[in-house]
Amino acid sequence: MTTKTGKPLDQKSLDAILKRRLFYTPAFEVYNGVAGLYDYGPPGCTLQANITDTWRKHFVLEEDMLEVDCTMLTPAEVLKTSGHVDKFADWMCKDPKSGDIFRADHLVEEVLEARLTGNKKARGEEVVVDEAKEAKKKRKTKDTGAIKLEDAVVKEYEETLARIDNYDGAELGQLITKFEIKNPVTGGDVLPPVAFNLMFQTSIGPSSNLAGYLRPETAQGQFLTFQKLLEFNQQAMPFASACIGKSFRNEISPRQGLLRVREFLMAEIEHYVDPEGGKKHPRFSEVRHVKLGLLDRKVQLSGSTQLTYMTMGEAVDASIVDSETLGYFVVRIYLFLVRIGADPQKIRFRQHMANEMAHYAADCWDAELLTSYGWIECVGCADRSAYDLSVHAKKTGAPLCVRETRKEPLKIEEWALDLDKKKFGPTFKKDSKAVEAALEALTQDVREKLSLDLANTGKAEIQVTGLASGDSTVEIGKDLISIEKRTRVEHVREYTPNVIEPAFGIGRILYSVIEHVYWSREGAEARGVLSFPPPVAPTKVLLVPLSTHPDFKPLVQRLGHKLRQLEISNRVDDSSASIGKRYSRNDELGTPLGVTVDFQSVKDHTFTLRDRDTTKQVRADEQTICKAIESLVKGQKTWADIQHELPEFTQQDVD
Ligand SMILES: Nc1ncnc2c1ncn2[C@@H]1O[C@H](COP(=O)(O)OP(=O)(O)OP(=O)(O)O)[C@@H](O)[C@H]1O
Fold first, then answer.
1. Do 231 and 372 have their domain in common?
2. How far apart are CA 354 and CA 166, in angstroms?
3. Is 232 within the bounds of a domain?
4. Which among 402, 390, 361 is positioned nearest to 276, based on CA atoms?
5. Domain Aminoacyl-transfer RNA synthetases class-II family profile spans what residues (predicted)?
6. Closest residue CA from atom 11 of ligand 1
7. Is 461 helix (H, G, I), strand (E, B) or coil?
8. What is the pTM of this model?
9. Residue 427's domain spans which residues?
10. Would you say the ipTM is above 0.95?
């Protein structure tokens, strides 16, 4: 990974900055901490708040979404219906001798990568070892040494790694056997992978009767508000709900800092769309021209990771992306990531392979950001079809659907059943309900056939389940039923909307963006800078008096007060350190702007405004400076605009 200067990212220095400046820190550290739990410090908190604030503006405000705040505690029944109780699991394998536990796909990945490194060493190729990354590993992978691999084996390993997210438990077990994968620390055998459910279980209330879970995503709560939101939206479709809140997953092996944790902030959107008419989006024309790096299913199947750059219009027209609505959100996600500071060159969209998606999903694209840990999934964008609303409606009987008055009434010709219910009871006794249900469930084709049977033979045979005597064929005479073709006029159309779901992991995004905006300023000693865009930077302005001279103090206080009135966060650094040192301390916090108060300020109330990235300065009166700051932190102007508008200030101006 390189930074914007083209130099390799120095992860060790970046880590030191994040620790020193308290962006985030392991939770409960004095008790030796718990893997996968982190606390955010002051700049981390503000950065997170600014990212979610931008998210609200970019999605909720811009798209008129309906924001909800659903509970994290969720009854088990809800997650049973959604499929999470049975299927929300990762594959885990255990070394029975040492007791070490591995996430099966991570184990295969770790061992194959180590062998490929060993192969490079044996061939005398350069091997770049990232010391900071190595130091962070909880467990040291045993050095496989310099062992040459045959070209065919290298190809097989690389293809396996390219598809590592797509294997199920049995396939991972086969890979472990085929590649003779062992515990990388002890060399011991591992048992075949078993499913491990990732949800934290709990019970709700004092009686412990109501089983519950901490939610693993915000989605289910949102689906269950669907009917109320549709009503709130005056039955108008399409619409979207949105929710920002914590989710919990009992990850088998939390790792890579904020990238895989057990408690994290999610921001999710559930966009409800009519499945008829190709899932068009009314604003697709606004995003059609945007070019993105796509890694589609076909390319991955060939074992390649080569990106195809194309516009979203081209991708939807060629059916690479399933629908306009899905494509619209993929572009909106991209624009959001760029808006908060992600480097466009380090963003790609990877399509899920067919076996990687949930069985009900129509298509799914992940926004992945390139980091020193490789490409990391930060946002998932899935078309979940009508699955969630349908299963909850079926389980509860709630009408989780849309009822729309048709513009033109629809005439439907259909085979209608008439039952003589008075005779049903005496004929079928306690089986009559089951027989009735079986008749009502008959398809149109079967009804047509039975009407012929009744006409020809005077009786019809149907299969009935749940009879007192078990499942069996039942004979029904024409004195009990009649089946005839009728025309029905339908004025109301009822359908279950499909759901397009962009799901953002805020912690992963926050960390990846930090890597994207990090670079080192050249000088006697390299100094780290975090070039956050002003709207997301934790602190916007640094106020620095030239020295501790008492005349500067009231001016600094006045400026601070003015900026606070404009709701612009600022910090004063009136320490005795040199101006350069004070600025570089704040470069590490990503503070985009600095105002210096000097002797000229005392004379004429003008101030210099400094840009973090270029270190260029302009000089103007207090009101003009505050206005410039306001337009920069709101993202309305860039530093280039300000430089164009205001006179540049150089050191010679003082000398
Ligand atoms: N353990 C985690 N720690 C931090 N963020 C996470 C974690 N699991 C998921 N996320 C975030 O939530 C988003 C949506 O969740 P989703 O269920 O699609 O993830 P996932 O496919 O299960 O992730 P992975 O395959 O990496 O475990 C992800 O794109 C990611 O940003």
1. yes
2. 9
3. yes
4. 402
5. 171-545
6. 505
7. strand
8. 0.86
9. 408-491
10. yes
Inter-CA distances, 291 with 294, 346, 404, Å: 9, 14, 37
Indicate the residue among 165, 197, 229 that finishes a domain. 197
For residue 238, say if its preceding peptide bond is cis, omega within 30 degrees of 0: yes
What digits encode the pLDDT tens for the residues 476-512?
988 889 999 999 899 999 999 999 999 999 999 999 9
Among 90-99, 138-147, 159-168, 204-213, which is the least confidently predicted range? 138-147
At residue 136, does pLDDT exceed 70? no
CA 25 / ligand 1 centre spacing (Å) = 20
DSSP per position, 572-627: E--SSS-HHHHHHHHHTTT--EEEEE-HHHHHH-EEEEEETTT--EEEEEHHHHHH
460 and 429 share a domain? Answer: yes
Question: Measured in whole angstroms, how far is the alpha carbon of residue 141 from the centre of its chain?
Answer: 30
Assign residue 482 the CATH number of its domain: 3.30.720
Contact by Cβ (8 Å): 568, 633: yes
Residue located nearest, by CA, to atom 31 of ligand 1: 505
Same domain membership, residue 224 and residue 343: yes
523 in any annotated domain: no
Tokens at residue 217, please?
A: 């995503």
Ligand 1 pocket check for 337: Cβ under 6 Å = no
Contacts for 18-24 with beta carbons within 8 Å, 24 or more apart? 18/514, 20/588, 21/588, 21/589, 23/47, 23/514, 24/257, 24/258
What is the number of structural domains in the chain?
4
Ligand 1 centroid–CA 378 distance in Å is 7
Domain annotation covers residue 604: yes
160 CA to centre of ligand 1 in angstroms: 21
